[in-house]
Design goal:
The chain has helices at 5-23, 64-75, 79-108, 112-137, and strands at 28-30, 34-37, 40-45, 48-53, 56-61. The protein is built from four helices and five strands. The longest helix has 30 residues, at 79-108.
Amino acid sequence: MPLDQRLLSKKIEKFIERNTSALGVPIIDKQDNHIRVDNLTIILKNERFVVNRAFETLCDFSYKSWAVAFALAITKRDTTLAKEIIHYQYKLDKLIEDSAGFKQRIDTTTDITKKYILEDRLSRVKLELLMVNDDARH
């Protein structure tokens, strides 16, 4: 009897899915264009890592590692961690937006005093960006 490689592969995959979910271990499957964590899919869209369940977008992140951590938290039903990751992303988005605004105003202002004040604010935002990234990694 010849060995059907695809059939065997499907059987092994189903066996792993059945048994890992029984153990409470999420299945992580990394492909070229997406990452799957149990029933959640992470895709890169418009330079953001989007976490989807079925066809519903749950959240999007600047970093792949944050998206995977969020998906794992959701899979493990750790809402505290999931909310914390979303909070860091919100802070990061706000700081990036502030930074872009300050840069634009620095480029357009002719008042030298105002330019110095804006540059000071921009340097503070850059420092806060570093701190958010550092906090999120610990």
